[in-house]
Amino acid sequence: MTITPKIIGYVAGTLTTISFLPQAIMTLKTRDTESLSLGMYATFTIGVLLWLVYGIYLDDVAIIYANAITLILASSILCIKVYNTLMHKTGRVSSNEQ
Amino acid sequence: MTITPKIIGYVAGTLTTISFLPQAIMTLKTRDTESLSLGMYATFTIGVLLWLVYGIYLDDVAIIYANAITLILASSILCIKVYNTLMHKTGRVSSNEQ
């Protein structure tokens, strides 16, 4: 009996995606992005997008599925971060930041 | 002129690794792992290890190099987290935790 090596990719993608979920859910729920770095999050999101493109190029379902899910979560958080940053710059700061 | 698709993989790996670096450097310097979840970090580290194994299976240098670097960083942080957790359990807590 041989374990299909493809399964390793699916398990890898599932584990790294699961490990990202709690932070993603918390940020999407609370919309608190104070402790997140815009530059680092933008870098991460572009990186995940390129992994997705690379997965499509390789025609590798494990790479595609893992990075597609992470990209949806990461880009949602990035949008909230950009929105919060813009609101802060235009003076609409929250009570915590005053 | 065609851009070698392999380059996409290298850029993707570089970006996601770079985005992980600041947290890794901070944790390795301060050894403060209070805000990190042991379960989530263990899940992430095993996931990265499996991506590395999958990269070796695919013989894909971009996947191998990105996950090898991240694995070194993530497993170092995981070791510190496990050490801190064990120290806490055996009563050798820091002044902040008393």
UniProtKB/TrEMBL annotation, chains A, B:
Keyword Iron set for record: no
Top-level taxonomic group: Bacteria
One Pfam family it belongs to: PQ-loop
Membrane association type: Multi-pass membrane protein
Alphabetically ordered keywords of this record: Membrane, Transmembrane, Transmembrane helix
Chief location bin: membrane
Transmembrane regions: 7-26, 38-57, 63-83
InterPro entries with a match to the protein in the record: PQ-loop_rpt, SemiSWEET
GO molecular function list: sugar transmembrane transporter activity
Protein's cellular compartments: Membrane
GO CC terms of this entry: membrane
Keyword Transmembrane: yes
Name under which the protein is recorded: Glutathione synthetase
